[in-house]
Here is the input.
Amino acid sequence: MKTLTDHLAQYAAYHRDPRNLLSHFIGIPMIVLAVAVLLSRPGVDIGGLWLSPVALVAAAATLFYLRLDLRFGMLMGVVLLLCVWGGARLAQQSTALWLGAGIGLFVVGWIIQFVGHYFEGRKPAFVDDLSGLIIGPLFVAAELGFMLGLREPLRHAIEARVGPVRLRQRPVDA
Here is the structure.
């Protein structure tokens, strides 16, 4: 099984341009929330708790994250719980609101992602390895931690494999 460093370094190799990183800080949360919204139907209210397919997906993802790293796993579990909560709220609204919010967040989130990869000059990581779809949210959490000065040994291990985030952006072809 790949380690946390293996997964993050592989994903980071596709994300060294700061504009692409910025796009991921916006687009990935939108996509994660969109998936939570869209998977919140069908569902059932049992004693004030909304049970739907998103609960199973979020639980499986949290277990995956926990197996990689306890601290990041707990953080991602909280983030996913908030997304599940938001998705449940929207799922209980009109079909138009639920579907509009879910599809809108999903489409706009992906557009932002692809704009970032245009600046990167490289295709998204999931094109080469589908695990990039689950590593993306973890990568955003890790990069935020690195910006806050947390988990420096992990950041150094990743940068030893793929180099630091570029300070200068590569010119965009005209």
